[in-house]
Specification:
single chain, 3-stranded antiparallel beta sheet, 7 helices, 13 strands, globular, disordered C terminus
Length: 255
């Protein structure tokens, strides 16, 4: 069970199946080239969906998982020392945690040359803070992830281009997919619906089982595949959609 407030602001527990995590992690490890030589710095608590990428990504790739002590987030300079001494290569962190370090100048005087990729999600990344990270880690790739917890962590990403000038915030148009694309997403009805609200699509293997204590939430948020009376169908992989009043990028997944 993973906890999230989602777009509503009301806390809820999202039940995610083992199969959904395995399906996501296979794509995640391949997309971002995790290997047994990586050392993954775990920032997120284990009941937060960001930790899924750290824990299961490390298991699937053979990488070393380094659990960052919670106390270090109260002393960002010591946190920076820890990342360096632990020879971290991969950071999948919440934006707020990254901004904490830049706000308190914790990057100053540290050698982060071993970090090869920084992935972030959960909030809008302020470009000023992103710029400080990119200056401190000139060799690293920075990736903005997106996706609701209900679709198992993330389903789209944008690799930050160092030579590109971003006018205000990172782009939401034409995101890259984590997993295989779906022909439905190229149709005009889908594009018209996406223009009015946020939509997400996923095969059944990537969709969560339900919200704990809220059995009616699935009916309100998801459209069941009319060809199948079951929620999960690994043979046909029904496409399921969610809509919210926010205007954001379409989030696409394995379908």
């Amino acid at each position: 069970m993973l906890f999230t407030s989602g777009s509503t602001g009301a806390p809820k527990g999202v039940v995610v199946s083992h199969r959904a995590i395995i399906s996501f992690i296979d794509s995640f490890v391949e997309t971002f080239a995790l290997t047994d030589e990586d050392r993954v710095a775990n920032q997120a608590p284990f009941d937060f969906d960001v930790s899924v990428k750290d824990i299961y990504g490390s298991i699937a790739s053979g990488a070393t998982l380094i659990v960052v002590p919670r106390r270090l987030f109260s002393t960002p300079a010591a946190l920076a020392d820890f990342l360096v001494t632990q020879r971290v290569t991969v950071m999948t962190w919440a934006v707020s945690a990254l901004c904490l370090m830049t706000t308190l100048h914790a990057l100053d005087g540290h050698d982060f040359s071993g970090v090869r990729i920084v992935l972030f999600s959960g909030e809008v990344m302020p470009l000023r803070h992103l710029g400080q990270w990119m200056d401190a880690l000139p060799q690293a790739e920075f990736v903005n992830l997106y996706g609701p917890t209900e679709i198992t962590c993330n389903c789209t990403y944008h690799v930050v281009e160092r030579s590109r000038t971003y006018p205000g915030e990172l782009p939401s148009e034409s995101p890259s997919l984590i997993g295989r694309s779906c022909s439905l997403l190229m149709t005009e009805p889908w594009r018209a619906a996406q223009a009015r609200s946020e939509r997400s699509a996923s095969g059944a293997r990537r969709l969560r089982v339900g919200n704990a204590g809220l059995p009616s939430s699935a009916a309100a948020s998801f459209v069941q595949n009319p060809r199948n009376s079951l929620f999960v169908d690994p043979s046909t992989g029904p496409v399921t959609m969610r809509s919210s009043p926010r205007t954001a990028s379409s989030s696409l997944g394995q379908a």
